[in-house]
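Box 3.1 A note on notation
Throughout this textbook, protein chains are presented in two layers. The first layer is the amino acid sequence; the second is a token string describing backbone geometry. Keep the layers aligned when reading.
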Amino acid sequence: MGDGWTMRKMWVGAGVAVALGMGFVMLLVVGVYLVAGNPTGGAGGGAKKLAKGSVPAAYQPIVQKWGNHCPAINPALLAAQLYQESGFNPKARSAAAAQGIAQFIPGTWATHGIDGDGDGDRDVWDPADAIPSAASYDCSLASYVKDVPGDPTENMLAAYNAGAYAVIKYQGVPPYKETQNYVKVITTLEKSFAAPTTRVDPSEQAAGAIAYAQKKLGTLYLWGGNGTPEQGGRFDCSGLTKAAYESVGIKLPRVANDQYNAGPHPGRDELLPGDLVFFSDDLTNSRAIRHVGIYVGGGYMIDAPRTGAVIRFDPIDTPDYFGATRVTEDGAKALPTTV
């Protein structure tokens, strides 16, 4: 959540930052409102490449390959399913007996599990088998509902949740709240795993999040801090970003590596104030992210750095800079409460 920040060098003192930064940030806040009110372009669709580090490096080649197994899926969609099901945990086991990184129940695995790595067995606990099996199963479902009107990917996802018969019966996504929510969650999460192909629209809530964080400058860091009165209004890194966006009506997960999936990922040269910026010792794996701040422009963020420090401005261009997320309301709502 933030105490790993001890490895980062202290370049900007809180007192200097507060003195120089208050008016600077207010200008940025106004600028964000102006930009957010006049968006041009969009996130686009049809991306076939994964965003940097969004899938752990050990699984990235498998997801990239098998995510193109049929037209109804793509690597980002497959990654979104795996994240939603297990958080990329190959040892995950649910109360309903679902197993492995793709959370197959035994009966479904017996029918649809494949030997993805060609080693002679089908092991639900081995991602080299389970990830290809998930892609293959998705494609089988897509073939079952291929004659149903509407979006083939949405129909496939609905079949995954409610069964192919229900999709055929209702000639599209069935009128079940759970199924409709499942389709929306996965297609929304897909955007956070896809490498953007066009400009990423700014968040209208970004300015408010910055304003909230700005008011906390100078507050002493607290590991596990959520800013409650019992904690003296103190925060750790992801506690601050969570509270900042909650102040404008967007509820983020508690830890930084899940916050990374709250929207699409602008490149370094596309950053706007309000973007969340992330840091890690492993630049190939978003699950290893250990620090987060709120970008304010000019190469700086507001963050809660570490034990013994205060909330302050810090530079983002350091060797452990991982990437950024442009938070969206739909993206945040799509994130699982536990992974």
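The first helix runs from residue 14 to 36. Confidence is low (pLDDT under 50) at residues 2-47.
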